[in-house]
Amino acid sequence: MSTSTWGPSTWRDRPAEQQPSWPDEAALDQVLKQMSSLPPLVFAGEARHLTRQLADVSRGEAFLLQAGDCAESFESFEADTIRDKLKIILQMAVVLTYSSGVPVVKVGRIAGQFAKPRSKPLEQVDGVELPAFRGHLVNDVAFTPAARTPDPERLLRAYHQSASTLNLLRAFTKGGFADLGQVHQWNQDFVASSTEGRQYERVAAEIDRALRFMRACGFATDTQPGLHEVDFFTSHEALILGYEEALTRRDSLTGDWYDCSAHMLWIGERTRQPDGAHVEFLRGVENPIGCKVGPTATPDEVVALCDALNPDRTPGRLTLISRMGADNVEALLPPLLRAVREADHPVVWACDPMHGNTFTTDGGHKTRRFDDILAELTGFFAAHRQVGTWPGGVHVELTGDDVTECLGGTDDISAADLGSRYETMCDPRLNGRQSLDLAFQVADLLRN
Ligand code: PEP
Ligand code: CO
To answer: Which segments within 288-388 are labelled E, that is strand?
Structure first.
C-alpha cells in the first residue's frame, strides 16, 4: 500500500472491485459533478464525536451497537419504517446498557446503505443473462434489461433519500422520542406480547423507578440531556467510490478531509485488498471507519490493513468487524486478536454474526438460523476472553417489522414460514422480537 499523497480521487489509480459498468460515463460524470456541490449530509464535528465514542469502546469502556437493513430500498421508504427501526435499536441499547452497565454507542446501517457487493457480476435466469442487482444506488431488482442497467440518476435519489432519512432520525433522537421517559413507547405491540417483550417491560419499569428515585432525591432529571436525547450515528458500506468521492469535503475547522455521506463508512469483505481502491479512498478521510474481516483473512493481512487505515494508531478510528461463521470463529479469531494487539493497534473489535452464516433453503430463500447467529456471538466473546481483549460490539441486520426472514428464535420460524413475510431486498434480517432476544443474550454474554 502507499504512503504517497492522498486526494479524494487517488483511488482512481487503483484496481476497484465491485464497481458497476455504467453505460454512459458522461452522464455519470455529470451527476457526480452536480453532487460535489450539494450540501454535506453529516458534519466533520459529528464524525469526530463518533470517533471519541468509539475510542471509549477500544479501551473497553463502551459497547458498539451497529444495526439496520442489509440494503435500504427506494420503494419501502416511509416514516413509520424508519421510526420502527429506530425503536428496536433504542430498545436493544437500553437492554444492553441496563443489564451490563456499559454505555452503548448507537450506529445505524441507515441513511445511505444502498449499494451491495455481489459474488457474481451477472445473473442468469432461464438462459437469460443480465447484470446482477447491486442495490438501489445502482440499479433495480426486477429481472429486465432496463431495470438492471446502472443509472447514475439513482445516486442523486439515494443522496436525497439519505438526507430525509437523516432529518427524521435527528428529529426523533433529539426531539423527545428517544427520551428515557418514553421507554415503554418503543415496545411495539407484536414485540410486547412475546417473552422478550415482557422481559423488556420489566427493564422499562425498573428504569421508570430509577428515574422517580432520582427525582425524589432532588436530581433535576429534566435538565440532563443524557436522559432526553441520544446520539445516533449513520453508516454504510463505502462501495461505489464515485458517490463517496463526490460527497467528500474539506473541513473548514481542521483542513482535514471527511466523507460527508455518513458518520462512519466501512469496507466490505470483498473490497478490502490492501492495494485496492477502497482502502486507498478510506485511508485518507478522517471519519471513523470499519473493515469487515472474514475467514480467509490472515494475521499479516489484518495488521497490514490496520497500518494502512490507521497508521497513527488513533483510538476509535478503526473498527474491525469479524464475520467468520459460527463454526470458524473460535479457531480463526484469536490469532487475529493477538496479532493486532502485538502490533499495538487500538482497534474496536465488533462481531457481525450474520454474513458468515447465510445459506439458501430448498424453497429458495436466503436465510440464517438464529441459533447460528447466537453461536457466532458466543464464540466471539469466548475468543476475546481467551486472548484478554474487549469484545467491543455487534453489527447486525435487522428491521423493526414482524418479518419472517431468519429461522428460529422464540417464535421458532421454520423454513415453511419464511414465505409469509419475506420482504428483504437482499440478506435476511432479524425481526423485532429476534432482535430484542439477541440483545438480552448479548447482555448476558457481556455481564459474564
Ligand atoms: C453486508 O454487510 O451487507 C455485507 C455484504 O457484508 P460482507 O462484506 O461482510 O459480506
Ligand atoms: Co447483508
So the answer is: 289-293, 318-322, 348-351, 359-360, 366-367
Whole-number Å distance between alpha carbons of 44 and 248: 10
Q: Which domain holds residue 210?
A: 10-447
- Is 269 among the domain residues? yes
Inter-residue contact 298 to 340 (CB < 8 Å): no
CATH number at residue 415: 3.20.20.70
Position 5 in a domain? no
Pocket residues for ligand 1 (CB within 6 Å)? 70, 117, 237, 268-270, 292, 323, 355, 427
Q: Are strands 366-367 and 359-360 parallel, antiparallel or unpaired?
A: antiparallel
Neighbours of 205 (CB within 10 A): 12
The stretch 279-294 carries a mean pLDDT of: 98
Please write the tens of the pLDDT for every residue from 45-65: 999 999 999 999 999 999 999
Nearest ligand atom owner, CA of 395 = 1
Which three three-digit cell numbers place residue 35? 453532487
Q: Supply the residue whose CA is at minimum distance from atom 9 of ligand 1.
A: 269
Residue of 247, 277, 271, 228 lying closest to 47 (CA atoms): 247
User: Closest Cα to residue 207, out of 66, 88, 93, 84?
Assistant: 93
Count of domains forming the chain: 1
Q: Residue 1: inside a domain, yes or no?
A: no
| CA 426 to ligand 1: nearest atom | 3
Distance 232 CA to ligand 1 centre (A): 21
Please list, in sequence order, all residues whose beta carbon lies within 8 angstroms of the beta carbon of residue 170, skipping any fewer than 6 positions away.
none
**By C-alpha distance, which of 39, 299, 258, 67 is closest to 167?**
39
Query: Which amino acid appears at position 328 of this protein?
Result: N
Which residue's C-alpha comes closest to atom 1 of ligand 1?
70
Atom of ligand 1 nearest to the CA of 109: 2
Angstrom distance (rounded) from CA 117 to CA 108:
19
Give the Cα separation of 280 and 376 in Å (integer): 31
266 alpha carbon, closest ligand? 1
Convert the pLDDT of each residue in 307-363 to its tens digit.
999 999 999 999 999 999 999 999 999 999 999 999 999 999 999 999 999 999 999
The answer as to whether 198 is a domain residue is yes
Name residue, grid cell 446520539. Answer: 231
pLDDT at residue 1, rounded to an integer: 46
Q: How much of the chain, in percent, has pLDDT values that exceed 90?
A: 93
Overall pTM > 0.70: yes
137-157 pLDDT, tens per residue? 999 999 999 999 999 999 999
Q: What Rg do the C-alpha atoms of the chain give, in angstroms? A: 21
